[in-house]
């Protein structure tokens, strides 16, 4: 059985690279991949100040932590009404 390593979204082919820079920070592309959205959506949410980020150097150099992406994604969830099977919905008066 061969164990592979997965570092920042890259399959290393089962071996640990000699010089790895393991970091919790993700690029906009990696954040988009994690959230299953486009990079355009990530930049739109950053611009609307709905997605927490760190700005590094230049204007579009952004970094994200997984927890920030997960919190943003969870915050976009809409509540769903769940009713017991077979029970009619109560009428509002």
> Given the C-alpha coordinates, what overall shape results?
elongated
Strand order of the largest sheet: 3-5-4
Number of DSSP-assigned strands: 5
Q: In percent, how much strand structure appears in the residues?
A: 5-15%
Order of helices and strands: EEEHHEEH
Terminal Cα span: 64 Å
Unreliable stretches covering 5 or more consecutive residues: none
| Structural class based on helices, strands and sheet pairing | alpha+beta
Question: What does the average pLDDT come to?
Answer: 82
Q: How would you characterize the largest beta sheet?
A: 3 strands, antiparallel
Individual helix count: 3
Query: Which percent bin holds the helix content?
Result: 25-40%
| Gyration radius, rounded | 20 Å
């Amino acid at each position: 059985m061969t164990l592979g390593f997965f570092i920042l979204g890259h399959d290393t082919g089962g071996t640990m690279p000699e010089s790895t820079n393991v970091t919790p920070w993700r690029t906009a592309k990696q954040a988009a991949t994690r959230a299953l959205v486009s990079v355009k959506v990530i930049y739109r949410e950053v611009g609307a100040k709905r997605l927490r980020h760190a700005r590094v150097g230049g204007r579009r150099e952004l970094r994200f932590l997984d927890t920030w992406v997960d919190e943003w994604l969870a915050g976009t969830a809409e509540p769903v009404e769940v009713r017991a099977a077979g029970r009619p919905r109560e009428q509002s008066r």
